[in-house]
Amino acid sequence: MLRPSTSLPRRGHGPLWRNPAVRALFVQIVLFVALAGFIGFLVHNTLLNLDARGIHTGFGFMDQRAGFSISQTLIEYTNSSTYGRTFVIGLLNTLLVSILGIIAATIIGFVVGIARLSPNWLLARLATVYVEIFRNIPLLVQILFWYFAVLRALPSPRQSLSLFDAFFVNVRGLVMPDPQPLDGFAATPWALLVAIIATVLFAVFAKRRQMATGKALPVYWIGLAIIIGLPLIVFFATGAPLEWSMPELTGFNFRGGINILPELVALWLALSIYTGAFIAEIVRSGILSVPHGQTEAARSLSVPGAITLRKIVIPQAMRVIVPQMTSQYLNLIKNSSLATAIGYPDLVAVFAGTTLNQTGQAIEIIAMTMAVYLVISLTVSFLMNLYNARTLLKER
């Protein structure tokens, strides 16, 4: 028996403008053309303005003589050095305060974050007061506080605070002995590198041995002994090829030794304490995210509290801590640009400040400065993401 067909008659595809895929593609093309035109207009207008003012674009200025002094340099620099040299010095100073700040902020954050969860009432309240105070005061205000209210209130060089007649603290910073390497000292850094590699290999061996036999080795103490002992043995075996340049007060200032500027100390303290307050909350939230049954199981097995925290709680909490801590590291690196407020010679103050004012090459200098911060941030994110990938739970 034949039944009537219930299917509707096929209709044509209709006009293209009714097709959602075609409309989406058309909108994307229009937006791309508009964006490209806007960028082209900005570039063309900028070039016209620069040409009207007699400013030529390019990076030829990098080979010109800078002619100004820099208070702190990690490499050799004189007034006759080039602007390219000022870029390198500013970059190194930025990396210096960023690395020091990340290390100190991480230590402060973990200590305070764990202290906030301490059963000791006083310790927990002190940690809470620290977090609530320093994370709610603007970073710039903290930098100015440490610089003007604390470090600038120190005595003059003639009335310096002295320790062992070798370390001097005054309004111009911390002056300490300067180690001068002699012939044969090059073997010590290589010994340190070998010690680090040997420690890593020993840690891998100890982990595999524990997985196979259940017996743990004191990796930390043995590794510390290797890292410290091997370079010391090589150092003294080569006749201790190191001499010290001692600071001496001559006139109104010290000569010899290393002078750590108060600007560096103030910026480092402010960045470390400010970022450490945020990391403390991140650590606390990470520890609280670990199920309480984990600590109860450890107690039932009579595992000491310190080992429970180090071997059970923290490794699991790191999966929550690392992504948030990465953002704080990036914030610290970018916040280091506030150094210009107190005259610390970082990349912004030296290159995007003095060099820009002298050369007028605003586009090239600002573009290079932004590119540096972008590359540093992407590098830190990449390394932290690699570590985070290793801490993630692996499904079986």
Automatic annotation (TrEMBL):
Keywords: Amino-acid transport, Cell membrane, Membrane, Transmembrane, Transmembrane helix, Transport. Its main location: membrane. The keyword Transmembrane applies. Gene3D superfamilies: MetI-like (1.10.3720.10). The keyword Ubl conjugation does not apply. The chain crosses the membrane at residues 21-43, 87-112, 133-154, 184-206, 218-240, 260-280, 365-387. It is found in: Cell inner membrane; Cell membrane. It is a multi-pass membrane protein. Belongs to the binding-protein-dependent transport system permease family. HisMQ subfamily. NCBIfam families: HEQRo_perm_3TM (TIGR01726). This is Amino acid ABC transporter permease. It comes from Salinicola rhizosphaerae. The lineage of its organism: Bacteria, Pseudomonadati, Pseudomonadota, Gammaproteobacteria, Oceanospirillales.
